[in-house]
Amino acid sequence: MTENSTTLRGKTLVVSGASRGIGLAIAVGAAREGANVVLLAKTAEPHPKLPGTVYTAVADIEAAGGHGVAVVGDVRREEDVQRAVDTAVERFGGVDICVNNASAIATEGTEQLSAKKYDLMLDINCRGTFLLTKACLPHLRASTNGHILTISPPLNLNPYWLGVHPSYTLSKYGMTLLTLGWAEEFRQDGGGAGIAANCLWPQTYIATSAVTNMAGGGELAQSSRSPEIMADAAVAILKSPAGKTTGQALIDADVLADAGVSDLSRYGGGDSPILDLFLDAP
Predict the structure, then answer these.
(1) What CATH topology corresponds to 12-203+227-257?
(2) Which of 55, 118, 160, 168 is catalytic?
(3) H-assigned helices in the chain
(4) Does residue 241 surpass a pLDDT of 60?
């Protein structure tokens, strides 16, 4: 993945759900490389329990050296998604990278899970990933190094992960299946170089609001790595030639190891960070 790396300078990303957490970290990481970023997110006003808005995220992007534009909208709404992509084309001339980050989580068992939460997960996780990628496709084809990157896990069919929260598992594996399918569907697009489509998943818990707002979130956060590990892994993937890195469900620590980074201590988490969902202990 380190061979024949390209640059992100002047490239344009459209990122869903990037007001905070992993999505924002990826946006800022790309901005440090000189990228343009269009953020699609619902958070226009400060939330009492969640840090940041789509506008503070743009400020972070510009402070990092990139150019950012906020689009307030819902990834479930086709017109909002199209508006984000149109904004990218109008402001920056196209779309080179589609980052499917927006996601909803509810880990209740089948009897306890409401139909409303089920629909929300499937709509945001699967429908949103489909809509954003579909809207970006005409412009990814015109890019010299088009990438689709989805924040979703490898397909682990261990019965434990199938049974512990079937509906959430379905929604996240749906994101992965779509992305791996696109890798094959668009392998010859983009002037024959292909449009890369990959998934990226953290090896460990990541210290985001989703973790800190859980019961015992403070202690969990101490055993979680910072979102920057996902950002650094994402940048490494997105700088790789589309024809060389595609159709993979990658783990952040493995991507960094491949890039020659062996010491992950700067990302925090202590000596034994918590292994993330969908990954089996060695």
Answers:
(1) Rossmann fold (3.40.50)
(2) 168
(3) 21-32, 54-63, 78-92, 115-121, 128-142, 159-164, 166-185, 209-212, 217-222, 228-238, 252-258
(4) yes
